[in-house]
Structures are given as C-alpha cells and as structure tokens.
Write a structure and sequence with these properties.
This protein is of the alpha+beta class and about 140 residues long. It has a domain at about 30-130: Alpha-Beta Plaits. The protein contains 4 helices and 5 strands, in the order H-E-H-E-E-H-E-E-H. The strands form 2 sheets. A 3-stranded antiparallel β-sheet has the order 2-3-5. Strands 1-4 form a two-stranded antiparallel sheet. It binds iron/sulfur cluster (2 copies). One iron/sulfur cluster binds near residues 57, 90 and 91.
Length: about 140
C-alpha cells in the first residue's frame, strides 16, 4: 500500500514538470553543433583532388571530374559525386581531409527509406542537403 502511495506521489510530482521527450517526428529534434550528419556538397568548391574518396574507410564515395569549359584553364571540375549511405559510417574523415571544404557535415540525420536504392545520393541531392550545414569556419 505504501508503495502505491509513494509511486502515485512521484507521478503527481512530475506531472507538472517540463517534458524532456520530443514528439518526434512531428517535432524536429535540434542536434548539437558538432553533430556529424549527412554531408552537404559544394560542387563549385571541389577541385577533384580525390582525397575524400581515398581516405574513406568504407569506399563509399565515387567521383569523376571533367575538363574545365575554358580551354585555358587546366583545372578539372567535378562531374559526378555519389555517396552510398548503405555503408557510409558518417565518420567525418572525408570532410576533415577536404582542402577546400567542398564537403561538410550537416545536422541532418534522416535517411530512413523503404528502398536501399534510395540510399545512393548523387551530387544534386548532396548539394540540396543544406539542413543546418556545419562549416569549419562558421562562428
Ligand atoms: S563520412 Fe566516413 S564513411 Fe562516410 S563518406 Fe565520409 S569518409 Fe566515407
Ligand atoms: S570534395 Fe574535397 S576532397 Fe573530395 S575531391 Fe572535392 S575537393 Fe577533393
């Protein structure tokens, strides 16, 4: 009997307290600034150096470059950039190694899907994934 009263007392005491849980997904969850979420890609910053693909421990980055449209410019520009999120472990190494910050982590973590094919993300998708993009130089 004493146990029931104690339990009821605890419940009543906590009824008026502020909730610590979220009604996810109806209410978005704020992730901390250093959260390592799905990458955002800036094609215009990419110099096609291949360092991100080389350092990736799971080999999930595929990229190709093409010659610059200006024949006097010997630099390559990015043509295709794909990440396979079936095997990406969001380790952050690709963004750490990128010399131009063409690839950066974001706060977006929502990748659930009914099809594995949806987990292959291309340049366009990664560029449009701007949800709370975390750039190294951001104040
Ligand atoms: S976060 Fe890690 S596993 Fe994912 S693409 Fe970058 S280096 Fe590869
Ligand atoms: S994203 Fe960065 S590391 Fe990867 S190829 Fe482009 S410039 Fe190089």
């Amino acid at each position: 009997m004493l146990g029931i009263v104690k339990g009821l007392g605890f419940t009543l005491k906590n009824l008026a307290k502020k909730k610590v849980t979220y009604s996810y997904p109806d209410q978005p969850v704020e992730m901390p600034d250093r959260f390592r979420g799905i990458q955002h890609f800036y094609p215009e910053k990419c110099i096609v150096c291949n360092q991100c693909a080389a350092i990736c421990p799971t080999d999930c980055i595929q990229l190709t470059g093409k010659p610059h449209p200006d024949p006097n410019n010997k630099k390559k520009i990015i043509d295709t950039y794909d990440i396979n999120f079936e095997i990406c472990i969001l380790c952050d190494l690709c963004t750490e190694v990128c010399p131009t910050e063409a690839i950066v982590m974001s706060n977006n973590f929502e990748l659930s899907s009914y099809s594995r094919d949806d987990l292959f993300k291309d340049l366009q998708w990664l560029h449009e994934n701007t949800d709370s993009t975390r750039e190294v130089n951001k104040p």
